[in-house]
Amino acid sequence: MIKFDNVNKVYPNGLHALKNINLEIQQGEFVAIIGLSGAGKSTLLRTVNRMHDITDGVLTVNGQEVNNLKGKELRKFRRGIGMVFQSFNLVTRTSVVKNVLTSRVPDMPLWKSIIGLYSKEDKVVALEALDKVGILDKAYVRADQLSGGQQQRVALARTLAQNPEIILADEPVAALDPITAVQVMDDFKKINQELNMSVLINIHHVDLALKYADRVIGIKAGEIVYDGPSSEVTHDV
Ligand code: ADP
Ligand code: ADP
Question: Locate the ABC transporter domain: which residues (predicted)?
Fold first, then answer.
C-alpha cells in the first residue's frame, strides 16, 4: 500500500536526507524505523503524507502518486493517514473529547469545534476512539490535566477517529518514561492487530522496536541499511 521507488529527498540547503529509497509496506504491517538522530527517519515518515515533498523518484500510497495530489484530493488523502507526534500536539486548554473531535471535522475552524458545532455521530465516534485507548473516563477533563502517557493516548484516539488506513508515529514514546512508553506501545500494537491499520513508527529505542514491530527498517545517513523481520535484527544495526 506504501511504495517508495528510488525516492530521493534533498532539502533546499542541499542536504541529501533520503538516498534512493526503495520500500514496500503492506496493509496491516507494524514497521519500526530505527537509526541515529539525523539519519532521516522523520524525513522518511513525513514524505508519506506529504508533510515533506520528495525531490525525485515515485512514492505511491494505495496506488495514488502522492506528489501529484493537490487541493481537495490532497486533503482527502491526508485524512486517510493518521499522524502522532513526540510532543502530542494537543490543544491543551480544551477537553479531551474536543481534541479528538478536531480530527472528525478537519475543515472546521477550531473555534467552531470548541463551541460544539459538530454532529452527534461525530461525538459518538470520538468517544468510541477514547474507549479504544482506555481513557473514556477522561473525556471531559482538560487535556493539560492528563499525564504524558494519557495525552499521547488522546493523540492516538484523535487519529483513530479519522478512521485512517495508516498511522504514522514520529517518536511517539520518546517523551515518556519507560513504563508509560511500554503502555503506549501496547496501544499501538492493539490498534494494529484489532483494526488492521498499518503502523509506521520512528523509534530510537531499539529494544521497543524489536519487541513490538514485525519488521524493522534501519536507516543510516539517508540510506536503508537493514530491512527485515525484527526477529533477525542484531544489536549492531
Ligand atoms: P531523524 O528523524 O532520523 O533524526 P531527520 O529526518 O529529522 O532525521 O533529518 C535527516 C537529516 O536532514 C538531518 O541531517 C537533518 O539535520 C536534516 N534536515 C531535517 N529537516 C531539514 C530541513 N527542513 N532542512 C534542512 N535539513 C533538514
Ligand atoms: P520533530 O521532533 O518534530 O521532528 P525536529 O526538531 O527534528 O522536529 O525539527 C524541527 C523542524 O526543523 C522540522 O521542520 C525540520 O524539518 C527542521 N529541521 C531539522 N533539522 C534541520 C536542519 N538541519 N536545517 C534546517 N531545518 C531543520
Answer: 2-237
Q: What is the ipTM of this complex?
A: 0.77
Looking at the predicted structure, is the pLDDT value of residue 110 above 70?
A: no
Residue 69 pLDDT more than 60?
Answer: yes
Distance 42 CA to ligand 2 centre (A): 9
Listed in sequence order, the residues at least 6 apart from 90 whose beta carbon sits closer than 8 Å to its beta carbon are: 99, 143, 151, 154, 155, 158
Q: Provide, for the chain, the percentages of residues in helix, strand and coil under a 3-state DSSP scheme, each rounded to the nearest 5.
A: 40, 25, 35
Q: Which of 7, 11, 16 to mutate to test the pocket of ligand 1 (most atoms within 8 A of CB)?
A: 11
Q: Ligand 1, closest atom to CA 171?
A: 2
Ranges of H-type helices in the chain? 41-48, 71-79, 96-101, 110-114, 120-132, 148-160, 178-195, 206-212
Q: Atom 22 of ligand 1 has which residue's CA nearest to it?
A: 11
Query: Among all chains, which residue has been given the C-alpha cell 541515529?
Result: 36
Residue with cell 496491516: 28
Q: Which ligand is nearest to the CA of 9?
A: 1
**pTM for this entry:** 0.89
On the 0-12 / 13-18 / 19+ scale of CB atoms within 10 A, 231 is exposed
